[in-house]
């Protein structure tokens, strides 16, 4: 039998830090803590990885090209998670309907469909 989660006690400062961090991400507190755990695991397995440089690149203050291959892999994984989270938040159809605006989109066959304002 596979477990998806298991109750774990965390220090209050870890929880509070995760709570503060989710304000800048699209994660829940458990997702943020799991994310940090994955990063920590990868960092421990890869002693040549510089987390500060990874954080600089993710913040837009460092160069991706100057990272090692392992560091680039960590950055790419974070980008995949961020893009997926952002895409999950987008619902342009609902925004257009709520604003009373028409919009166009492609259907599953690639044909243009114009949705008129209601």
Structural topology:
Elements: H1 12-21, H2 29-45, H3 51-58, H4 69-89, H5 92-99, E1 103-106, E2 112-115
Helix pairs in contact: 1-2, 3-4
Q: Would you give an account of this structure?
A:
The protein is mainly α and 118 residues long. The protein has a domain of 79 residues. It is built from 5 helices and 2 strands. The protein has a two-stranded antiparallel sheet. A hairpin with a 5-residue loop joins strand 1 and strand 2. It is extended. The model has no long low-confidence stretch (mean pLDDT 87).
At a glance:
With 118 residues, the chain is mainly α. It has a domain at 12-90.
Radius of gyration: 20 Å
Distance between the termini: 50 Å
Query: Structural class of the helix and strand makeup?
Result: mainly alpha
Number of H/I helices: 5
Write out the strand line-up for the largest beta sheet, numbering strands in chain order. Answer: 1-2
Coarse shape: extended
Identify low-pLDDT runs.
Answer: none
Overall mean pLDDT: 87
Beta fraction: 5-15%
Order of helices and strands: HHHHHEE
What's the total number of strands? 2
Helix coverage percent of residues?
40-55%
Main sheet properties:
2 strands, antiparallel
């Amino acid at each position: 039998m596979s477990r998806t989660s298991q109750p774990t006690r965390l220090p209050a400062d870890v929880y509070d830090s995760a709570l503060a961090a989710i304000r800048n991400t699209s994660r829940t507190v458990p997702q943020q803590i799991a994310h940090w755990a994955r990063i920590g695991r990868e960092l421990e397995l890869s002693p040549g990885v510089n987390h500060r440089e990874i954080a600089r690149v993710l913040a837009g203050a460092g160069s991706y090209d100057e990272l090692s291959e392992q560091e680039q892999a960590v950055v790419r994984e974070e980008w995949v998670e961020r893009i997926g989270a952002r895409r999950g938040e987008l619902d342009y159809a609902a925004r257009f309907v709520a604003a009373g605006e028409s919009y166009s989109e492609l259907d599953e066959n690639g044909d243009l469909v114009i949705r008129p304002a209601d």
